[in-house]
Write a structure and sequence with these properties.
Helix content is 28%, strand content 19%. Helix 4 crosses helix 5. The chain contains five helices and eight strands. The mean pLDDT is 97. The two termini are 13 Å apart.
C-alpha cells in the first residue's frame, strides 16, 4: 500500500484551502493501491490556515530541536507539525506502507525541497518534518514529481 498526501488525492486541505490533485495518484486511490493522509490535519490544523515555513534549517533540524516552524505572522507551530509527523508515521506503520508520496515544498511534506523560511517563495534543498521522520524510519519517500520512479 502506498501512502499519499491527501491534497494530491484531491482533498482541499492545503494551507490555502486548495488541493494539488494528481490524476495518477487519484487512479492509485481508486484502484485501492494507495490511501491518503494529511500530516497537518493529523497534527490538529484546520483548513485554511496561515502559511508556515521552517526557520533555521530543515525537517531533520526540527526533529533534532535545532529549527522551528513558524507562521507568516510569527506563531511557533512546531509542536503541531511534530504531532502530525508522528501521526503520519504511525499510520504508515499501520498500513504497512511500501512507499510514501508527499507534496513537494511543504514544511511537512517536502521530500526534496522546502521553502527557505523567508516567506519570499525561495526554496532550498531539504525535507519537511514529516518526510524527514518517515525517511529516518526507513520509508521510501518521494514527491509527486517523482511518480514515474515507482509506477
Amino acid at each position: 500500500m502506498i501512502l499519499v498526501s491527501s491534497c494530491l488525492g484531491g482533498i482541499e486541505c492545503r494551507y490555502n484551502g486548495s488541493h494539488a490533485a494528481s490524476e495518477k495518484i487519484r487512479k492509485l486511490i481508486e484502484e485501492k493501491q494507495a490511501v491518503m493522509a494529511c500530516p497537518e490535519l493529523l497534527g490538529g490544523f484546520s483548513t485554511p490556515r496561515e502559511p508556515a515555513e521552517i526557520i533555521g534549517g530543515t525537517g531533520e533540524d526540527v526533529l533534532n530541536g535545532c529549527a522551528k516552524i513558524i507562521t507568516s505572522s510569527g506563531e511557533n507551530v512546531t509542536d503541531l507539525y511534530m504531532k502530525g509527523a508522528a501521526q503520519t508515521l504511525a499510520y504508515a506503520k499501520t498500513i504497512n506502507a511500501s512507499a510514501v508520496i508527499l507534496k513537494e515544498n511543504s514544511p511537512s511534506c517536502g521530500s526534496n525541497f522546502i521553502y527557505n523560511g523567508s516567506f519570499s517563495g525561495k526554496k532550498i534543498a531539504g525535507n519537511g518534518v514529516t518526510a524527514a521522520l518517515l525517511k529516518q524510519a526507513g520509508y521510501r519517500v518521494i514527491s509527486e514529481n517523482q511518480l514515474d520512479d515507482i509506477l
